[in-house]
Design a protein that fits this description.
By secondary structure, chain A is α+β, with helices and mostly antiparallel strands. In chain A, 24% of the residues lie in helices and 19% in strands. The chains are: A alpha+beta, B alpha/beta. Chains A and B meet through helix 2 of A and helix 12, helix 13 and helix 14 of B.
Chain lengths: 500, 415
């Protein structure tokens, strides 16, 4: 309990313990009792305005808010008495009285608290016969976010997020009473690297993202946890995708990346760079082994890899150290890096093992780091001292294995082409298509981090293992499998390093 | 009526001037308190006097002061609630216009008792002229050394700042007042923590109504026993009763707490005009549930009205004459709360507007008895579930109007 004193209380007859200072809502949640709520969010301050979390606390005459009531020793809380259920029903009826009920065209449908709570706590016949307020239904508020004021329940999570978390305060409350509305200030749209979280935290369909609007339905998506590979923070994410192949026409695979709670790393949020990373999983991917820049139908990666092994074997043992060059990257998992170490350094005894990665970018003060790779710490942890090769060092090689096409971020395309022109055997292992493809003999389609399992060590040294979140296209293979297969065909035992 | 005539409201034109106040013995009580009494003794005396808050809730002032944590370093604040916005209430305005120094003296004593050095007077925006006079009085008091540093030769001090609101009923709610004073939208805060512990600028804060504070000097001048010789043991002294509507002499009357409502209307305010019978009385500002003519033999004090299912509130008495269509009264009431709901919490924001939509439709198109059942049900859905007392204040008078005038209302909407 983080060194805080445990406090004992009773919730719905269950004896539970929670850390001192916890509110009733969180304490109940930890004990498996869900108290419905809209405005409360554990990453924000307490607002107490939605009134949905009213519960009975023994000794107090009125219903109390579970979100603002701090637990006390011996407290007796009841969350499902008739009085509590009646109050929830009342609050829901009020919220839905002015709600447009446009669920069939609402992107939040299927994961909307209004829907869920109506099913669990509402189920009344509507008594609202008065005309509902008409409000703006598609207000662009910046960064591809669309605000629907008819759906908004005024929980102010978005307003508070921008005030407390990013400190940018682009959204505010305007007008009062029934005319109350969320909005941006004149000419100052939402513009920060955390804007996508507004969609995640909106409990209803009031804030939606253009990127996701009307593209699919929430219930078609499979949600699997992963780690964001776009900087060295290693934020916990959820990859939401459509299962199975083949995809229907115009169907995408990954529809969105959302934040997953991890108090040790990213709290509740992820940045827009990571969220936009969904494009990285789907767009511009290799789907088959290609040779001389063109996909070869029917050529499996195993078969193609035999050529790589043959090229390596053709270099006499004593000359390998200087004549075989390898370029690795920090998107590889710790397990893959261990295999690479065992194969290239220990097994083949290569001198020329280099690293090329994405260039650093500007960090922000919240989560995004300037290091735009997920496993820089893992590279050092595996015993590598990463160094970018000089083009001359690559040009002198007889066999060149390049993992990732990041070398082009550091050298001009023509310079790289010149350097590679004299290399007799050269292979690229890349997830995405790019100009490097036509400069090599063969390209092996490798997995995106979301498509593999492994371990990354983040900028603070937190070691995080993750499982495959998206099934890759059938021809795609993880680098780990390539490294292991190569070692097998070369007769190199990776021993303990082979962690498959 | 107190023997010494009007205590809070002197009648002469320049009564508000410092000179006139000093002639009446002004600031002598504060001098005595600040130079010779212990703060705890002041709180004890006010507590003994059973001074109930004059703003609406009727909470004992001395008890409220006692909630401020002892021995905290850092600032504490006094906020004077002059956001007098409850319909039917106009007493604080008169105190500010005619006896601003008496308020200031009450503030000095209160600030001393609680250990406060900075006070804010939150005046509703509509009282701009009143605020100007208050500012003048503060200038007078400051130049005479009654506020500012080294009060009465001690090392005590008090700064007073006047703040003008921007016209929102909700800002009379104490936590919304604090938000407004801090420069944000006037919307209530979640309690606990209560302002006495975490108030203005997150510091312990005492918030009292104008009349409450203006009553304090009298208690310390003559003692709690003398104060209790009028009023009731649990609700001492005199109060300012505002009478408006169908009476011959509408106005503000200072009378002993517990004076019967009938006496206030019929004797002091002269009763209803010739030929007009009494139909209903709102006893304590619009939020107080309406009373029928048969219910006005009731002492006007906090507890008696609560027992009768109504509320003394701000003691703003609105007299409704026979012939008034109660559907109109219901509509005006519903419209006021729907308009003034701050919109922060769900039941109040949507409940009050929903009720207004129904009442508006009933007036326009007529309706069925079941519409009134729904109004009662919706009011019940607001009551006890809102963030601040405004929800209760909206639901209770609407329920009372519908319940007590159900027959008339049903006839009025039958088409």
């Amino acid at each position: 309990m983080n060194g805080k004193k445990p406090v004992g209380l009773t919730i719905d007859g269950l004896k539970v313990q929670a850390a001192e200072g916890t509110n009733v809502l969180r304490a109940a949640e930890q004990a498996g009792v869900t108290i419905p709520h809209f405005c409360f969010h554990a990453g924000l301050d307490v607002e107490g305005s939605c009134r949905m979390c009213l519960v009975e606390i023994e000794g107090l005459p009125k219903l109390e808010l579970a979100c603002s009531t701090i637990i006390r020793e011996g407290m007796i809380v009841r969350t499902s008495t008739d009085r509590v259920r009646e109050a929830r029903k009342d609050v829901l009826e009020f919220l839905l009285a002015e709600h447009p009920l446009d669920c069939p065209i609402c992107d939040k449908a299927g994961e909307c608290r209004l829907q869920d709570y109506y099913d669990l706590h509402g189920l009344y016949a509507s008594r609202m016969v008065e005309p509902r307020e008409r409000r703006d239904k598609k207000v662009p508020i910046g960064r591809g976010l669309i605000l629907d004021r008819e759906r908004c329940v005024l929980c102010t999570r978005c307003v508070r997020f921008l005030r407390l978390v990013t400190g940018t305060g682009e959204l505010g409350m305007f007008e009062r009473s029934l005319r109350s509305e969320v909005g941006i200030y004149d000419g100052r749209p939402v513009d920060n690297n955390y804007s996508g979280n507004l969609v995640d935290i909106c409990p209803v369909g009031a804030i939606t993202a253009e990127d996701f609007r009307f593209k699919t339905r929430a219930w078609f998506l499979v949600r699997r946890p992963s780690i964001c590979p776009h900087c060295s923070r290693g934020c916990a994410v959820i990859i939401e995708s459509v299962e199975g192949y083949p995809l229907r026409r115009s169907e995408k695979r990954v529809y969105r990346v959302t934040a997953r709670e991890n108090p040790a790393v990213n709290g509740f949020w992820i940045c827009d760079v990571g969220r936009d990373g969904r494009h990285d999983i789907d767009d511009g991917r290799h789907a088959a082994v290609s040779e001389k820049g063109a996909p070869v139908q029917g050529l499996s990666w195993e078969k193609a890899l035999a050529g790589v092994a043959a090229a390596i074997r053709s270099v006499p043992g004593p000359e390998r150290a200087g004549k075989i060059a390898v370029v690795l990257n920090a998107r590889l998992t710790c397990e893959e890096l261990a295999l690479a170490k065992g194969l290239f350094v220990t097994g083949l005894g290569l001198d020329k093992v280099f690293f090329a990665d994405r260039k650093p970018g500007p960090a922000d003060s919240l989560l995004l780091t300037s290091d735009r790779v997920p496993n820089a710490k893992g590279v050092r942890d595996a015993g590598f001292t990463p160094r970018l090769p000089a083009l001359g060092e690559l040009a002198g090689a007889e066999v060149l294995l390049v993992f990732g096409s990041y070398i082009l971020e550091h050298f001009g395309e023509e310079d790289v082409a010149r350097a590679l022109a004299g290399v007799p055997s050269k292979y690229l292992f890349a997830a995405h298509t790019g100009p490097l493809d036509r400069l090599v003999d063969a390209v092996f389609p490798v997995a995106h981090p979301a498509e593999k399992s492994g371990t990354y060590i983040n900028t603070e040294g937190v070691r995080q293992s993750f499982a495959r979140a998206v099934r890759p296209c059938p021809a795609v293979v993880a680098e780990g499998a390539i490294l292991a297969c190569l070692a097998n065909s070369l007769g190199i035992s990776l021993g303990d390093a082979d962690v498959r | 009526m107190p023997e010494n005539g009007f205590r809070l409201l002197p009648l002469d034109d320049d009564s508000w001037r410092l000179e006139a106040y000093l002639r009446r013995g002004g600031y002598e009580t504060a001098r005595k308190v600040l130079t010779s009494m212990a703060p705890e003794a002041v709180i004890a005396e006010v507590r003994k006097a059973s001074l109930r808050g004059r703003g609406g809730a009727g909470f004992p002032a001395g008890v409220k002061w006692g909630f401020v944590p002892k021995g905290v370093s850092g600032p504490k604040y006094l906020c004077v609630n002059s956001d007098e916005a409850e319909p039917g209430t106009f007493k604080d305005r008169l105190v500010l216009l005619r006896a601003p120094h008496q308020l200031l003296e009450g503030m000095l004593i209160t600030a001393f008792a609680v250990g406060i050095r900075t006070a804010f007077i939150y005046v509703r925006g509509e009282y701009a002229l009143v605020a100007r006079r208050l500012e003048e009085a503060i200038v007078e008091a400051r130049s005479a050394g009654y506020i500012g540093p080294r009060l009465f030769g001690t090392d005590l001090s008090l700064d007073v700042v006047v703040h003008l609101g921007a016209g929102a009923y909700i800002c009379g709610e104490e936590t919304a007042l604090l938000e407004s004073l801090e420069g944000r939208r006037g919307m209530p805060r979640v309690r606990p923590p209560f302002p006495a512990v975490v108030g203005l600028f997150r510091s312990p804060t005492v918030i009292n109504n104008v009349e409450t504070l203006a009553t304090v000097p009298q208690i310390l001048a003559r003692g709690a026993d003398s104060f209790l010789s009028r009023g009731l043991p649990k609700d001492g002294g005199t109060r300012l009763y505002c009478v408006s509507g169908a009476v011959r002499r509408p106005g503000t009357y200072e009378l002993a707490v517990g004076t019967p409502l009938r006496e206030i209307i019929e004797v002091h305010a002269g009763g209803t005009p010739e030929g007009k019978g009494l139909k209903a009385v709102i006893p304590g500002g619009l939020s107080a549930p309406v009373l029928l003519p048969g219910e006005i033999d009731i002492p006007m004090d906090v507890d008696s009205l609560a027992r009768a299912g109504s509320m003394l509130g701000s003691a703003g008495i609105v007299v409704i004459p026979e012939g008034t269509p109660m559907l109109d009264v219901l509509h005006a009431t519903a419209r006021f709360y729907a308009h003034e709901s701050c919109g922060k919490c769900t039941p109040c924001r949507i409940g009050t507007s929903w009720i207004l939509k129904i009442v508006g439709r009933l007036r326009r198109d007529g309706g069925r008895p079941a519409d009134f059942d729904l109004i009662l049900r919706l009011a019940d859905g607001i009551k006890g579930k809102t963030l601040c007392p405004l929800g209760e204040g909206a639901a209770m008078p609407i329920q009372a109007l519908v319940t007590k005038f159900r027959g008339e209302l049903e006839r009025a909407v039958a088409r």
